[in-house]
């Protein structure tokens, strides 16, 4: 900043005091897979059944719409590519495939229930 008076020139510079600053240790975020087609491998249970697990966090729906039949019911036979439910995440509806073959023994969650990543959804034998 410069101020001028008739024939004199006065220069004013701001005073800046410097203080040593230490960088805080920041934890690095872990890389996460966002591919909704990859699921955790089916886990065998103690009674020789396998489970179909949630590949993502979301809301579980057993049918494509409230007035339609469920994708699968107890006693139904499924193959690797059979759609077993829908998981809604951020207003996107993701069809979930069984990825294993067998018979549905038990549905472990209720329609409209929030599920976590890796949470068992179905028991299959």
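^ Assign residues to that structure.
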């Amino acid at each position: 900043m410069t101020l001028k008076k008739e024939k004199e020139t006065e220069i004013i510079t701001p005073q800046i005091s410097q203080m040593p600053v230490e960088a805080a240790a920041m934890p690095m975020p872990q890389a996460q897979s966002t591919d909704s087609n990859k699921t955790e491998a089916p886990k065998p249970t103690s009674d020789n059944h396998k489970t179909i697990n949630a590949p993502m966090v979301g809301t579980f729906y057993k049918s494509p719409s409230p007035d339609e039949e469920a994708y699968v019911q107890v006693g139904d036979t499924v193959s690797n590519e059979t759609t077993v439910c829908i998981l809604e995440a951020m207003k996107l509806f993701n069809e979930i495939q069984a990825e294993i073959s067998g018979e549905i023994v038990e549905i472990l969650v209720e329609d409209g229930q929030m599920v976590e990543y890796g949470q068992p959804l179905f028991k299959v034998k």
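DSSP finds no helices and ten strands in the chain.
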